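Section 5: illustrative case.
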């Protein structure tokens, strides 16, 4: 199969869909790989390294979209990229369609077969292609939140870890999944006073056992959320409903209960955000203020640590990419039902139920397409 990897064009997105090492593996399995010139510079990978790995370097994205059977990316295709997609082509990348009706419509109109990293499953309902980026984003959320708490950035002027004689900052993590767990680890490591909130008793038991007396747990309901955010210096939104829009857990009204200069970091912004006042920002302008509360809502947080993120992502996306390239997407999905969960759009049809319900499209079951 001919596989193409264009340069990412989203604001301050430095990751790349394929590392030179991944290209070596693909070429070893007799696939042809085209890399857009400069695509890997954000992770320190030069065109020469890709050539050594066996890739063909092409100028600009057009040859890739026009001639490659599968396009491997990191972020959702931007409007100018979507206009180049075509029927019969495979797109393999993060999509996050539920909060993005324009992208969804364009992918349906293009006829492309779009496979979303974030909905490919694993054993016990895990999301293995989302997990490494969730780990990165969870850890970065504390780093970003601590920075936003500085007075020069609009925050309260609170040091999360405090100092002897001065109380540490109070951190509330909403959601005890992969993002929340990693956020809590970082916050505890910095010496913050951490509370983890979730609706699942098993999750609360798990994180409570792990952190013991280093962090508190609390059941997540409206009353407890209001009480927790009112006392918080930093709130991390770390909730996820696979493939669907995130629930709006912190309302505009709750901002009035918070301390002026407190910070909200919405890690769920890729799925529309879990704070009512959230809207996506970029690394160029990461924060804004609503009702004296600082909001950090960067939609591609892991792009700031591109090398770490790219290698972590390739570790989990490459095996499926090789399977698709060897077998074709349909046979690969017949052989692996977890990969089949990643199919979001095919030949003008929406094939992921949560997105169809969120955006009002007819749902077409993947199993019917594969029959």
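Designed sequence:
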């Amino acid at each position: 199969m001919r596989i193409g990897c264009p340069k990412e064009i989203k604001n301050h997105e430095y990751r790349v869909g394929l590392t030179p090492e991944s290209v070596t593996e693909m070429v070893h399995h007799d696939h042809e790989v085209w890399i857009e010139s400069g695509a890997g510079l954000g992770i320190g990978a030069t065109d020469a390294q890709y050539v050594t790995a066996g890739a063909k370097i092409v100028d600009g994205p057009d040859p890739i979209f026009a001639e490659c059977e599968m396009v491997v990316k990191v972020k959702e295709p931007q409007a100018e990229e979507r206009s180049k997609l075509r029927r019969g082509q495979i797109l393999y990348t993060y999509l996050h369609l539920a909060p993005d009706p324009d992208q969804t419509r364009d992918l349906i109109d293009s006829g492309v077969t779009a496979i979303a990293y974030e909905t490919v499953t694993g054993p016990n309902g895990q999301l293995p292609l989302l997990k490494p980026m969730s780990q990165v984003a969870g850890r970065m959320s504390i780093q970003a939140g601590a920075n936003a708490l500085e007075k020069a950035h609009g925050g309260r002027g609170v040091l999360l870890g405090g100092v002897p004689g001065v109380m540490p900052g109070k951190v509330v993590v909403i959601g005890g999944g992969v993002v929340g767990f990693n956020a809590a680890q970082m916050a505890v490591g910095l010496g913050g006073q951490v509370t983890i909130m979730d609706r699942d008793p098993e999750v609360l038991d798990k994180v409570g056992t792990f952190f013991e007396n280093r962090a508190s747990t609390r059941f997540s309901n409206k009353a407890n959320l209001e009480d927790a955010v009112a006392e918080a210096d930093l709130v991390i939104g770390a909730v996820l409903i696979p493939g669907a829009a995130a629930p709006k857990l912190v309302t505009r009204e709750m901002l009035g209960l918070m301390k002026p200069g407190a910070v909200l970091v919405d890690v769920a912004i890729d799925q529309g955000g879990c704070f009512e006042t959230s809207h996506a920002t970029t690394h160029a302008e990461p924060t804004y203020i609503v009702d004296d509360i600082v909001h950090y809502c960067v939609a591609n947080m892991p792009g700031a640590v591109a090398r770490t993120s790219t290698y972590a992502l390739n570790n989990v996306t490459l095996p499926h990419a090789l399977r698709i390239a060897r077998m074709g997407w349909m046979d690969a999905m017949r052989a692996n039902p977890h990969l089949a969960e990643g199919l979001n759009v095919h030949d003008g049809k929406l094939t992921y139920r949560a997105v169809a319900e969120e955006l009002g499209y007819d749902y077409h079951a993947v199993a019917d397409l594969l029959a």
